[in-house]
Amino acid sequence: MLDQTQIERLEAEPVNSAKMRQPLYAARKKIFPKRASGRFRQFKWLVMAITLGIYYLTPWLRWDRGPFAPDQAVLVDLANRRFYFFFIEIWPQEFYYVAGLLVMAGVGLFLLTSTVGRAWCGYACPQTVWVDLFLVVERAIEGDRNARMKLDAGPWTIRKLGLRTAKHLIWLVIAIATGGAWIFYFADAPTLLGEVTTGAAAPVAYITIGVLTATTYTFGGLMREQVCTYMCPWPRIQAAMLDESSLTVTYNDWRGEPRSRHPKKAQAAGLATGDCVDCNACVAVCPMGIDIRDGQQLECITCALCIDACDGVMDKLGRERGLISYATLTDYNANMALATAQGTLPIRPSLIRTGDGEFSDKVAHFHLRKIFRSRTFAYMGLWSMLGLALLYSLLTRDRLEVNVLHDRNPQFVSLSDGAIRNGYTVKLLNMIPEPRTIVVRLEGLEGAEMSLVGSELPAGRSFAIPVEPDRLKTLKIFVRLPVTRIQGATQTFRFIAQDKASFESNQYTATFNAPESSK
Fold this sequence. Notes:
There is one protein chain. By secondary structure, the chain is of the alpha+beta class. The protein contains 16 helices and 14 strands. The strands form four sheets. Strands 6, 7, 8, 10 and 12 form a five-stranded antiparallel β-sheet that branches. Strands 11-9-13-14 form a four-stranded antiparallel β-sheet, with no helix packed on it. Strand 1 and strand 2 form a beta hairpin. Helix 1 (39-57) crosses helix 4 and helix 2 (96-116) packs antiparallel against helix 16 (374-396).
């Protein structure tokens, strides 16, 4: 157990703090975050490994869909206008599934934010993940915080030039890999990789790699926290998602104030002292360059690294963890009221502790059940209903469609025997990666028969049409109705398309037109 004076005080300036925020066009002040260690840092490592693994490895996963479809598990096939996701195939007219997923993502973000604050920003946002990755490279080459600050302030030497060159080259490799991985989602990955490396790929592939390389390198390596502060709208939107029961990273000043690095002298002088020893460890590890002790700020991404840093200091001092913690506004206000005698006194740590130094039973502590409230259940219910509706629609959707377009000019033709003929363009859509034989037949319009233009098949009321896998088959069909069967200027009937193998069918109600005099 260490004394407060044995805890190193870091000279860390919260350059991005609300109290010290620079004008919009001021030059960026560099932030040199110190490496943190603890449970939240470990969780961030885990999330970074999972998210980067998903991003870089997904295009290389295979999924057997048979000989008539690509075997890439996740593929946005722009050339054939298809989106493949493992066993799911989405056609352009089914884009509402993608829209539904985006709505679910939005509701999920609202749910996450209202429950645990900006957890998305702190752990899974691509900007956060890639900045963390770039910082790993920076620390590995230039050292931790003090070494990087010293190197940055020092003159340009051969060593400094070599370290900076190595760092930026690795950043560029990561950025190129980021752009390269993205294009593999839009074509067969092994084939496209060979084309890119040999210079045979389409120009758009190289343009995409170049754009994403530039943005990744700039945002992750050079701009970092400025992207979150000035470019991202979410910090300004999130306030509408939070309430008194939302978890946020909070400095518990009801426990930490007044700060003192010499509590024994202060206590001997009759002054109250809190648990904060003003070591600035929380400021030094913050990748956003703020001081959490200034209260809630839009720059805070709730990555919780300040919690790890503070918990480490509290462990060394033999005090309870949680001086900085995830807390709700309700609990914070209750504890502040307790520490200030309902606001009638300055913060007095003695009011929250018993005589033996333990926390009073009146101190509010977080419990998991506190986040399960009506707002949480409302978001969760809406999110679940959207997901179930999409799943039901996906499982019950038709994989065979028929669409019919009636000829406009002429709408009908009178034949030499008095019969009336109408022309139709019939489109059969086979939405599975297997060949099918589709039977097209007439239903209704008694006495009518149809003929297939360009085919030697005899006229009749049904045809068996082969349709290629994942293809649209367009037919030109004439429907002939004897004059004795005409019952009016317009009659309705149905084209029925059915796959005899799977018994899947679809129908379209069409209109047969005739002259008024033929009634």
